[in-house]
Write a structure and sequence with these properties.
With 378 residues, this protein is an alpha+beta fold. It folds into two domains: 12-52 and 60-95 and 115-122, 2-Layer Sandwich (Phosphorylase Kinase, domain 1); 126-195 and 216-375, Orthogonal Bundle (Transferase(Phosphotransferase), domain 1). Helices cover 30% and strands 17% of the residues. The strands form five sheets. It has a five-stranded antiparallel beta sheet, with helices on one face. A three-stranded antiparallel beta sheet has the order 8-10-11. Strand 4 (61-62) and strand 5 (65-66) form a beta hairpin. 37% of the residues are buried.
Length: 378
Amino acid sequence: MVTEDHHHHELRGRKRYRIEKFISEGTYGKVFLAKDLSNGEDVAIKRLKTAAASAGTSGGGIGGIHFTCIREMKVMKAVHSENVMSLVDVFASINEDEASAEESASTATPRHKQPQLSLVMKFMHCDLKKVLSSRNVTLSLPCIKAMVYQIVSGVKALHDVWFVHRDLSSGNVLCDINTGTLSLTDFGLARQLGQPPPGCFGQSKRSFGGNMTFNVVTLWYRAPELLFESSYYSPAVDIWSIGTLMAEMLPRGERSRPSTVKRRAPLFQVPSEVDLLKAIVELLGTPSEQAWPEASSLPSFHEFAYLPEPDNWPRDMFGDACRESDKLDEFLKSMLMLNPTARPSSAELLKHDYFTLGHPTMASKGEVAKALRPAVGG
């Protein structure tokens, strides 16, 4: 008699999963919806391209696996949180269909079939970008609070083990419409932090990752220190990105002034880095020596015509939301400080009065799930 445990043990690697359909293709691999035959659950399988197949990208690889994919696996194995995408399984196999087609089309001596590595992850129904762009989705302030809390929780889980995500965007937050869970994904740009250089300004040793590239983070969510080409930066770049994500989720304007009411939109929807800097300064004011002393020493810093820090930000943009949700304005403003050292940590954000004391209370995950479902026709 074959027991259930024995059956589970026997179903390993490729045989454990049945591909249901193709979902998408990215720079480093293809993603499929699959069925886990050991338990009947849906999973997502990311079949990685070899480093040679993605040779047009930067970064190289090890053993046929691109460095970006190695980073992803490292993060997903190191971080344990429901708000951070984790690895269910990893296996190597040869795609027989593709290999046979390749050999049939070639008259040359058949090449050695190189196994492809496949990453198995929990299946998530959509990303936050799809949710926010859907006209069928209405997000209440309690739902927004619950969703932001999950995003901050995921970021804290990364920061707790010294990782900075460096590419938080609406496309890199996945949503489960059955459970109301949000999980961070796409860790190809993630970096583990280390010790700051000698004399570097006022940050702890856990705040820096050495000489790092500033060309990270999807443009609309990129922090000002990166735009000024700082190579020594902290987890505060992720905090800025959370602020821009939250602003994208909030309803704009005031019902008492219908002309101000607008649909959800990215806070900084601009085509270039120069335009982004201009938009940030127009919204938040000019970086001053008093508020951000280190800014003028950054490689690409340049002077702007003086604009004062606005007195009524963010209430002038999110009037009803700020009025109806206690401490929302303070919470959002704290994440979008020009000076990265003035932004709170992810741990401090979770303890903010916006979450702990503010009205309205946070929505349940069941309520979040119900709000998300129209994004995928559910």
